[in-house]
Known about the structure:
By secondary structure, the protein is an alpha/beta fold. The chain is 38% helix and 14% strand.
Amino acid sequence: MPQRILITGANRGIGLEMTRQALARGDSVTAACRTPDRAYALNALAGGHDGRLAVIAMEAREEESVRSAAAACGPLDLIVANAGTLNARGGLTDPGHTQDNIAESLMTNVAGVFFTARHFLARLHDGAGTRSQGMPPRIAVISSQMGSSERAGTTAPMYRATKAAATNLARSMALELAGDGIAVGAWHPGWVQTDMGGAEAAITAEESAEGLLRRFDALTMETSGLFETYRGEPIPF
């Protein structure tokens, strides 16, 4: 049965490809990004999908922007908190770690997940009457294996910290929302050939998005709280 999906950060990379693949399989997608008028590749998807794509403006790190976007959104079956940013790749002495971009990274990668879940939660409840039987409403957090304490490294320490926090937040939400029958998971999308991942990355956005959508579909209340790769491999936290 087709699903109703919100994807944040949908204007490029994995978010754009998840949007493309979800539409191709018959889902309806609310695609959120900062500046829809500049999201040329995303807007190009609007034709030929019977009005199943809605592109909306939303700044994930600003709560009022998220609140307004959620108020204008229809019922949902799945929230994909994908919006994210990498502030700097080096270690402690990398001059790219400035106060301002650290703040942006924390607000986007952590608070953005929180705000998105908080304000679109009601849209998951709205979809209850028309949802496919056996598939719970779900929240998918795009994290990274770089946020695993057992896979610590010397690169991008602030990015790693934000992804550790996002995974921790996903697990907290899984516990809090269990009584409402809402499943939550966190996923590592792979090292992907995007602006963030770089051209030398291991997999394409197409491979990552296909795997992620498949794993989102497999999420149940029994597996809520998981942290795994786009291929379904558990990640130690």
